[in-house]
Amino acid sequence: MDFRSFLAKTLDDVGFRSSIADHYVWMRVATKPDGEAYYEYILCYMDDILCISHDAERPMKQIGNTMKFKGNKIIEPEFYLGARLKRKQLDNRYIWTMTSHDSHDYVKNAIANIEEQLNSNGMKLPTRVSTPMAAHYHPETDSSNELSSDGVTTFQECIGILAELTS
Question: Phi-psi bin for 132: left (phi > 0), alpha (psi -120 to 50), beta?
């Protein structure tokens, strides 16, 4: 069983369900100590796992019962997908912020992730291009196959990276 399938089975076993919109986003209903219901989220990308929860350590320990974490540790994140994460206090509440403040690191990590994905599919980025697409490309006559669900997710991730770089 490959890592992605093993992770999916593990998350399913502890009650998380994959989002219809993005199969890298997993969720389950949880309850805060005051009785308020909410969703816990697990975000997965390659071998990175980020938990969003009132008590993030609890679901991470549940996952850790089946999977071994790097260094056998569950820690607050500093980076996720090349973006720097930071916990801040705002109006007497703690919030998490995500920034690509050091855009050089963000771009470097984004390219490395894309190259890794391409490499796993036997492809690579071209080394010399003058335009983003062939000069005689006509999208209205394109008859290439639709993307698989993995391809759609990769496309969405690339658009997200471009959006972050242009914001």
Answer: alpha
